[in-house]
Specification:
The chain is an alpha/beta fold. The protein is built from eleven helices and 13 strands.
């Protein structure tokens, strides 16, 4: 399930066969193992990213998701020039990031949810002013951007407040504004809404959607909160075990794997155990029962008709499969294929030995 790459197009970000491995010094358990560890020269190799290729155009908003250890952060660090690729190639705005880190930094903004670029003991506006000097932002551009971000992110009340006194939501709004002050072409976001309440999340999501749409800022977002992806991004890239396993729209993924639906039925009284052809009972709370069915096989109308013929129904609610459940389904399929391949390889090696 891979996205078609444009032939001959000049993408803002071009990644080809990108790989990265890390060597780790082998450690042995126990007291004697600790001594052995000091003198051993043995290493283990872990693949973080393996043969990943994609293009990202100017103005796209891309969600880059995967489980912990899948390779998300490693990819982002290579795109920003922090890490050098093991093999393959990267071009961002025509630059090789790790070879032109200073020039690349002029065209990107970075926000990591757990790391601050703001000066802890200074008022927020002083950090903005320092950023203006570091990036040589013209005064007119700086004032225009500061006014725009202050209004959209509702920062008026805390611009003069030291960063250490800000709430998490206020600090994250200031972090995002800081990353955009120099008008970067690309904004990298790593867990920008982690730990925030619903109101703060909603504010940041709306702001990011606005700057992407109105200013054509390309957004690459990594997060475990898939509501961020659905509200900000039109494109989804899923990485697992270092490999890109899906690249396309969220709607296309839902169409391929989101065929399961849930229906909650409230009866006038508890009808007891129900067997419904074309659906599976997944929750039984007496009068309220939830069924799951495949919408390509059965329709909600037919299922409700079959139930209404036998039992008096008080209320009904339908629920589509969430993006979280769809991605879990994709992971399970990938893991099953990986296990089957491993079993086949083991069986093949065993037959080669016996023959």
């Amino acid at each position: 399930m891979k996205r078609e790459e444009g032939v001959g197009s000049l993408a803002l970000i071009e990644v080809r066969d990108l790989s990265k491995e890390f060597r780790q010094h082998r450690r042995y358990p126990g007291a004697l193992g600790a001594i052995r560890t000091l003198f051993t020269r043995e290493y283990t190799t872990r693949r973080a990213v393996g043969n990943v290729s994609f293009d990202i155009e100017q103005g796209e908003a891309v969600g880059y998701v995967g489980p912990n250890g899948a390779g998300k952060s490693t990819t982002i660090k290579m795109l920003t020039g922090i890490l050098v690729p093991g093999s393959g190639s990267i071009r961002v705005n025509g630059l090789v990031p790790h070879k032109a880190r200073r020039e690349n930094a002029k065209h990107i903004g970075v926000v990591f949810g757990q790391r601050s670029q703001l000066w802890w003991d200074l008022p927020v506006v002083d950090s903005f002013d320092l950023h203006k000097h570091i990036y040589h932002i013209p005064l007119a551009q700086y004032n225009k951007n500061l006014s725009f971000f202050t209004q959209l992110l509702s920062m008026e009340d805390f611009l003069q407040v030291p960063v250490r006194q800000l709430s998490l939501g206020q600090r994250m709004r200031a972090e995002i504004a800081l990353a955009l002050l120099h008008d970067p072409d690309i904004l990298f976001l790593d867990e920008p809404t982690i730990g925030l309440d619903i109101t703060a999340k909603d504010s940041i999501r709306k702001f990011l959607h606005t700057v992407n749409r109105e200013r054509q800022v390309t957004i690459i977002l990594t997060t475990h909160d898939l509501s961020d992806i659905e509200e900000i991004c039109s494109r989804l890239m899923i990485i697992n075990q270092g490999g890109l396993m899906y690249d396309g729209t969220i709607d296309a993924l839902k169409a391929q794997l989101g065929t399961q639906r849930k229906i909650m039925v409230e009866f006038a009284h508890d009808p007891g155990t129900i067997e419904l052809s074309g659906a599976t009972l997944i929750r039984d709370d007496g009068q309220r029962k939830q069924f799951q069915f495949d919408k390509t096989v059965s329709s909600a109308f037919d299922l409700l008709g079959a139930l209404a013929e036998k039992y008096p129904i008080v209320d009904v609610s339908l629920e589509n499969t969430s993006i979280e459940e769809i991605i879990r389904t994709l992971y399970r399929g990938e893991d099953q294929q990986s296990n089957e391949k491993e079993q086949l390889d083991t069986w093949t090696r065993g037959r080669a030995v016996t023959h």
